[in-house]
Design a protein that fits this description.
globular, alpha+beta, 1 helix, 78 residues, 5-stranded mixed β-sheet
């Protein structure tokens, strides 16, 4: 599955919301330094979609707030 996410780093809380248009909006406490915000986003998405962390990949927008994410659904955790 491919999803689009708009990320706000250095937020007061961690949160993911699915918008009406099917895209996602995420807030992460981590700072955008050395990929910390990206790692936090990947962990949050893995938990949200109940897949291991290595099933979530940023395929576009690594240094942008607008990201395209790939989630492998066939690796779901029990």
């Amino acid at each position: 599955m491919i999803i689009r996410v708009h990320v706000t780093p250095a937020a007061k809380h961690d949160k993911i919301v699915r918008q009406e248009d099917g895209q996602y909006r995420a807030w992460v406490k981590a700072l955008p330094v050395r990929g910390q915000a990206n790692m936090a986003l990947v962990a949050m998405l893995a938990q949200e979609f109940k897949v291991p962390g290595n099933a979530v990949r940023i395929i576009n927008g690594y240094t942008s707030r607008h990201k395209t994410i790939s989630i492998e659904e066939n690796t779901a955790q029990p």
